[in-house]
Every structure is written in structure tokens, then in C-alpha cells.
Design a protein that fits this description.
single chain; 41% helix
């Protein structure tokens, strides 16, 4: 809905050139009744030149005459026949002091939200697809110094803008999943009608490796269990050496060492 241009100047013209009541003029110009009365008394809007609403197409003489005849009626703004130009979308402006932080913000989004495509990242950060590709593939001229940083903390984009792009990415993934399911169902139905075995489901698309993705280290192998100590064999009476096994059997007629024949 269009609004009245220069309401005070229009009120000055209506007070000077019409027989409308203060209430009617105040309602049309969005002013207070006492303010319109002050304009009529010369106490308000001193030095303001009246603006003809008929000349700029906001009122018609017939509309003014209708309200002059009926003090309870209210003026209605005429519809403008002029087409206002639509505002074109411009590239997002990033302050010069924060442009050097854009590669860090790109790396952060690639690391934490891989579902965002290049167009969405470019819209959020005001950058180009070539820069995003260079950061992703580590071919950026300043790759050695790139450190992922939150663009919200850097002040490059707002939380509301980021959440809106994430919702769009989620809806896009849902549409792609439904489309793939429909195509697989159609292929299975066509194969069944032809009497052939249904084709295997299409493999899931493999995403390009993300060098900024968080990878968990492999768990350390468990140390081998220590071997149980073998208990020493129990000594039995049969294992104890005897004199015969050590010195051998003594020949007949010989005496043990340390003994003498008694005569």
C-alpha cells in the first residue's frame, strides 16, 4: 500500500484550498487534530509551502468534493499508476577490514556444514566460487595460514542468515533423496514388467574429500596379555637321586668308602 508524500505540506494545501474539516485532514495526513488546527492558525508548519495532492496524483477533485459534502467521510488515497522499479539483488558487501578473514570463514563452513553448496557459501560470505574451490582443494595462495574461524564471530554473516541457508540445504537433500527413491522404484517396476531381475540400487554418491573435515584417530591396539607363569613341577620321591644312581652299583665284596674290614 502506497503512503502519502509530504503529509504536512499536503495538510497545508488542504487547509488553504478546501472546506474539509480538521478531522478529515488529520486522518488523511496522519496528523493530530490539534496539529491541523495549529496549521490553520499559523502556529505550526510555519514556512512550509503547500503541496497539491491533485497534481501529484494522490487525490482527485471528485474525492475532495465527496468528503466536503459529507463530513463523516474520509479521504482515500488514489492508486498510483506509476510502476516502482523492483530492487535488484546485489552482491553481499563485506567490509575491507574483514575481507582477509573470508578464507578462514570458508574453511569453517566446509568443515562444519559440508551440506552447503558453493552458491550458498558465496551468498553468506560474499565471495566467489573460485575462492571456495581453492580453499577446498588447498590451492589457495594463502593456504598455509588459513585457520577455520566462525563467520558469526568474525561478523561476516548473521546467525539468522546461516540458519536459513541450512534449512534450504536440508530441504534440497530431502528432495534429492525422494527423487532418487522414485527413480529406483520406476526402474524396478520396468524391470519386473520386462521379466528381468531388478537392477541393484544406485550407489550412494561419494562426496569429495574435505581436507578440513574432523577425523577421529584410530584406537590404540590393546597390549598383549602377559603369559601366565608356569608353576614349578612338584618334587616327587621318585625324582630324588639315590646313592646307586650317583655312584653306580658297588662290586661284590667291596665296602663303602669310609668303612674298614673288621677282622
Amino acid at each position: 500500500m502506497s503512503e502519502l508524500l509530504m503529509p504536512k505540506a499536503t495538510a497545508v494545501w488542504l487547509v488553504e484550498n478546501t472546506a474539509l474539516t480538521f478531522e478529515q485532514i488529520a486522518a488523511f495526513c496522519s496528523l493530530h487534530d490539534l496539529e491541523v488546527q495549529g496549521i490553520a492558525d499559523g502556529e505550526v508548519a510555519i514556512g512550509i509551502r503547500g503541496l497539491d495532492p491533485i497534481a501529484n496524483g494522490q487525490l482527485t477533485r471528485e474525492e475532495i468534493a465527496r468528503c466536503e459534502a459529507d463530513q463523516s467521510a474520509r479521504l482515500e488515497l488514489s492508486a498510483s499508476g506509476t510502476k516502482m522499479p523492483q530492487r535488484t539483488r546485489r552482491a553481499r558487501y563485506t567490509p575491507v577490514s574483514k575481507r582477509q578473514d573470508r578464507p578462514n570463514a570458508i574453511a569453517w563452513l566446509l568443515k562444519n556444514y559440508p551440506e552447503l553448496n558453493d552458491a550458498q557459501i558465496g551468498k553468506l560470505l560474499g565471495t566467489t566460487k573460485s575462492t571456495i574451490t581453492a580453499v577446498r582443494e588447498r590451492t589457495h595462495w594463502n593456504t598455509q595460514n588459513i585457520s577455520p574461524q566462525d563467520p558469526l564471530l568474525l561478523g561476516i554473516c548473521t546467525e539468522q542468515e546461516l540458519l536459513e541457508e541450512l534449512r534450504k540445504a536440508q530441504r534440497r537433500q530431502e528432495r534429492e533423496a525422494k527423487k532418487a527413491a522414485r527413480e529406483a522404484k520406476k526402474a524396478a517396476a520396468a524391470a519386473a514388467a520386462a521379466g528381468e531381475a531388478p537392477p541393484p540400487p544406485p550407489p550412494e554418491p561419494v562426496a569429495a574429500p574435505n581436507p578440513y573435515a574432523v577425523t577421529e584417530p584410530d584406537p590404540a591396539p590393546e597390549p598383549p596379555a602377559a603369559p601366565e607363569a608356569e608353576s614349578p613341577p612338584e618334587n616327587t620321591a621318585s625324582d630324588e637321586p639315590d646313592v646307586a644312581s650317583v655312584f653306580g652299583e658297588m662290586p661284590a665284596g667291596s665296602t663303602e668308602p669310609g668303612t674298614s674290614d673288621e677282622t
